[in-house]
Automatic annotation (TrEMBL):
Enzyme Commission (EC) number: 4.2.1.33
Function statement: Catalyzes the isomerization between 2-isopropylmalate and 3-isopropylmalate, via the formation of 2-isopropylmaleate.
Protein known as: 3-isopropylmalate dehydratase large subunit
Catalytic activity as recorded in UniProt: citrate = D-threo-isocitrate; (2R,3S)-3-isopropylmalate = (2S)-2-isopropylmalate
The record's free-text note on cofactor binding: Binds 1 [4Fe-4S] cluster per subunit.
Family stated for the protein in its record: Belongs to the aconitase/IPM isomerase family. LeuC type 1 subfamily.
Species of origin: Paenibacillus oleatilyticus
The protein's enzyme class: lyase
Keyword Metal-binding: yes
Cofactor: [4Fe-4S] cluster
Keyword Transcription assigned: no
Associated pathway: Amino-acid biosynthesis; L-leucine biosynthesis; L-leucine from 3-methyl-2-oxobutanoate: step 2/4
Keyword tags: 4Fe-4S, Amino-acid biosynthesis, Branched-chain amino acid biosynthesis, Iron, Iron-sulfur, Leucine biosynthesis, Lyase, Metal-binding
Gene behind this protein: leuC
Amino acid sequence: MAKTMFEKIWDNHVIHSEPGKPSIIYIDLQLVHEVTSPQAFEGLRLSGRKVRRPDLTFATMDHNVPTKDRFNITDPISKQQIDTLSKNCADFGVTLFDLDSIDQGVVHVMGPELGLTHPGKTIVCGDSHTSTHGAFGALAFGIGTSEVEHVLATQCLQQAKPKTLEVRINGKLKPGVTAKDLILGVIAKYGTDFATGYVIEYTGEAIRGLSMEERMTVCNMSIEAGARAGLIAPDQTTFDYLRGREYVPQDEAFEQAVAAWKQLTTDEGAVYDRVVDFDADSLIPQVTWGTSPGMGTDVTSRVPNPADFSTENERKAAEKAIEYMGLTPGTPMTDVTIDYVFIGSCTNGRIEDLRAAAAVAQGYKVSPNVTAIVVPGSGRVKIQAEKEGLDKIFIEAGFEWRDAGCSMCLAMNPDVLKPGQRCASTSNRNFEGRQGRDGRTHLVSPAMAAAAAIEGRFTDVRDWNFKVKQEA
Ligand SMILES: CC(C)[C@H](C(=O)O)[C@@H](O)C(=O)O
Ligand code: SF4
C-alpha cells in the first residue's frame, strides 16, 4: 500500500501497538537541555536506573546561558540548572557540549550542525521546537520531562499515532521573501491550531527550492501551528548538507545511508488525512502585530481593526492583543517604531540568517533609538560568521555581537526587554511577556529585523533592497 513519509518512519519504529491504545515507538536520538532534564535525571537516580543508550543521547545548555560573559552566571536558578546538567551528564555518561565547547548552542542548531539529525530517525527533546529537525525528514517532536526520563531509561516512548497533513506550498518565493515569511504567512492564513493532532509534511515547488537552513526555519514553527511535528522529504539538498558532518556515516557508508534515505519519501498515490494549499508567489514580507504567531500580516498592511474579525472570540483576542502591544488599529505597520532588535534563536540563528541580516546592515547604522543584538545559534555559527567578517559588519553598524544561546527568544537569561519595549525579533513566539514582562514582540525575518534596526521602524525589506541598489 502507498505510504506517506510519516507512515514509513512511524512503521519503522513501532515496537508494540494495540488497537485503540498509544503505540510504543523506538527513539533514535534524544537531545537534552538544562531546563527540562533535571527532574528526569533525578528520577533515574531515585529508581537506581542508568541511561539506557548514552550513545544516542546528547546534551547542551542554551536557555540560561548569558550571551555576554557566559561563565559568569549570576542568576541562582540559571546557575543551578546549568551546573545540574553538567553533573548529570558526567554521572550518567552523556556527551555534553558544555559552555567551553564550540558546539555549545541552541539545541536545535547544534544537532543538525553536528550531523546528529538524519532522515528517517525518531528524535525527541524536552523542547517544543524539536520540530526543527523534521527539515531532514526525521520524525522529531517535543516531549515533557517525565517522558524525557522514560526515554533516558528505556529509549522508547508511548505515543498516540498522529494524523497526516500535507501543507502544499505552490509557486516560488519572490526576492526579499524568506522561509520565515512563508511559515508566518501559513500560520496567519490557517491559524495557530490548524495542525493540532497532525504531523505536517511540507511539499511543493517552494519547499524544494529552500536550503536546509530555510527548511529548518519552516519546520521549527510547525509547533506554532499546533502540529506534533513537521516533515520535509530528504533530497539532494539534504544529502549535500549532511555529507562529511561529524556524526554522519562516512564514505561508502554514507552512500548506503543516502540510498536508504531516498526510500523514505511519500509514495505516489499515498493519501494524507488532510491537505491545505498555500501560494508562495503572492507572499510578501510578514510582521506580526499581536500576541500569537498567527496574528501576522503583510508589512505593507495595517494594524487590523478588531471589528473586522468574523467571530466574537477573534474580535476579543485581537482587542486584547492590540492593547497589550500598545498599537492603534489602522496604523500602517511601517509606522510602528521599535526599541529593540533581536537576531538569533533556533528559528533564525544560523549562518544564512546572519548573512541575510548582514547583507542589509552593511554600510548602515542602527537607529540611535534602537538597541540591536545579534546572537549566533551556536559556537560554530559564531566562528563561521567571524571567518566571513559578519561580526565586523554588525559591530560597525552598531549591533552588539554576542555568544551563542537562546538569548532574548525567551526571558530566561540576562537578555530581556524592559516593560513596554517593542522588539523586532527573528524568534518564533510573540506571547505576552515572552521576551520580558510587558515586553512587546513582533516576529519577522532576519533581513526585516536588520532593516528595522536601521530605520527604527518596520520597513519593507523589498524597498530596502531597491534603496540600497539606488544608493550604490
Ligand atoms: C524551555 C522550553 C521547555 C521551551 C519549549 O519547550 O519550547 C522553550 O524552548 C520555548 O521556546 O518556549
Ligand atoms: S531559541 Fe527560543 S524557541 Fe529555540 S529552544 Fe531556545 S527558547 Fe526555545
